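Note on ligand handling. Small-molecule inputs were canonicalized before submission; formal charges were left as drawn, and no protonation-state enumeration was performed. Where a ligand contained multiple stereocentres, the stereochemistry in the source SMILES was retained. For adenosine-5'-diphosphate, this procedure yielded the string shown in the input block below.
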Amino acid sequence: MASRRLRLLLPLGGLAAAVALWSLGTALLARSVPIATHFAPLGALRALVGLLGEALLWEHIAVSLKRVAVGLAFAVGMGVPLGVLTGLSTLFAQASGPLFQFLRMVSPLSWMPIAVMVLGIGDAPVYFLLAFAAVWPILLNTAAGVAQLDRNWLLLARSLSATRFETVARVILPGITAHILTGVRLAIGIIWIILVPAEMLGVDAGLGYFILDTRDRLAYAELMAAVVLVGCLGFLLDFAARWLHRLWLHGR
Amino acid sequence: MNAPAEHLLAARGLAFHYGAQPVFAGVALAIRRREIVALLGSSGCGKSTLLRALAGLESPAAGQVSFLDQALASPHPRSALIFQQASLLPWLTVEANAAFGLDFRHQPAIAAATRRERVREALAAVGLAGRESAWPAELSGGQAQRVALARALAREPELLFADEPFSALDAITRAEMQNLLVEVVHRWHAAVLLVTHDIDEAILVADRILLMGGRPGTLLAEWTVDIPRPREDHPGAVTALRLDILSALRDTFVQPTADVA
Ligand SMILES: Nc1ncnc2c1ncn2[C@@H]1O[C@H](COP(=O)(O)OP(=O)(O)O)[C@@H](O)[C@H]1O
Ligand SMILES: [Mg+2]
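Structure output:
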């Protein structure tokens, strides 16, 4: 009982301490840099409440979430088949291993100029960057899932004279879904981190764009509000991904 | 239904090798309806491979297997398989696990109501009535193996292939499961090929014991077990047979060879 209350109180206490530090920091900074007062928590909170009442902010949020969804869809569409192939074929795994490791370690944002040159300005290069950043955890987790499939499940399917479709749909895909969902959760985290900088280049909507816009309008309280909002939405996305994973795992 | 064949399963001149390494050769055996046959042999002597070949899961290099007088090319719909691990599908409930595969395309078509009834009956027979909606992760090892047994029974098999199904269980649970196996296969009128390396298990469960050994493996000896059940009540006869099997085993030890399996 006491421990459950503590589990609730501790995170709240941590957050409260952070807000207090934030408040103190802006107050101290304001002595030398007067503009810092605009970044204080109370103003940010007031700005956030105001913004949430405006349709415009919700449009930016919708645009960003749509980009997350499209980027994730591409990442899953590429990552799962490639992961299955990697898990099933040692030949493919060996041939692609170093290449994948190399590509994985190139910051996705490095591709931005090339992406814009090839795909033009607009949503397409953002989708590309998000998908490119997010495909790796999905690919690697899918491959690990295939490698960890219980051989007896496949033997069982064969003993039932399962068709190829039945084997894939009833054994292999559900058998690796937990791994895919782990990959998806990691992918969502990466996408959300890449999204804001990706939206600062050549687009005119989305949360990343909105942050630059507040800066240009010298609306610093709104800037801080946007930062807080990005954090909150990311938290919720991660929560949703975790919930999905748990839902699939049931009692496991 | 076919005219009743004398043998449910028959194999002649069966041979198998992995690459250049022979596993078994010249294996001939027959299993009658409702008969429990134990295939006994040391680890690595090729029992599992032979079982898979008899079940139609591996094609032998030589010889042939017939099921109800028909040559077997792929697993027969009236045969079922259980392994050392229960290998339940963790994303399905106990009930869905027991029903797994009944609706596959190459399985005999049965109405959904019949399917539910069969699954209910099988789960009740293995003592899991009321646990239908449990998840595999909530089960003990013995309970999971019961579900695996129910999954096989739900298919109303003529022949159950069991590859060391109880060797991962503790001694008490194993004894329980051995008795349960005998009880349900009698009730289902099924025959069993039980692969085991446990002499006592073979004696307690089987109507007939086949001893496998040698390199490549062959069937070396055979015993008919006519000790009345429950066999725990006849320790003298059980001990006598165990000694008999042990001495046969000692005679068949092959010279250690240089190759490392
Ligand atoms: N997939 C495989 N590839 C090559 N050799 C194998 C394979 N599976 C089993 N073997 C070998 O075949 C022999 C028989 O194996 P197995 O049938 O599993 O024996 P048992 O079930 O009696 O322990 C062993 O020597 C084993 O190393
Ligand atoms: Mg074996």
